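The records we work with from here on pair a chain with its fold. Here is one such record, which you should read through line by line:
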Amino acid sequence: MKTLTARDRRTYRTRRRIVRPVATDRLRLTVFRSARHIYAQVIDDARGVTVAEANSKSLAPSGDKTAQAKAVGAALAERALAAGVRRVVFDRGPFRYHGRVKALAEGAREGGLEF
């Protein structure tokens, strides 16, 4: 039996608590935060495809990391709305809803996504 790391346990605990996207016809907005960049994507779990994505590496927005995260959230919302996605479930993974993760969520909400 495989021993899970603390990070894996946090991730599974978060994913277990979110409302199942397949049952609610919502897609999943997932976030990955590295030391330098932040990445976000909207995933259709039923089909197994990424509908929209945005990251601070390719966008290269100006400002501090929190401002960059907010810009990534706004860009993701714009791309998701263009793909016809309005309602999502926010999956923060092992990261706390604080700082850059919270700024990305606020940027996505201001961009027009509902979650």
User: Anything to note?
Assistant: The helical segments are 6-17, 21-24, 56-59, 65-82, 100-111. The chain has a mean pLDDT of 91. Strands lie at 27-33, 38-44, 49-55, 88-91. The CA atoms of residues 13 and 94 lie 8 Å apart.
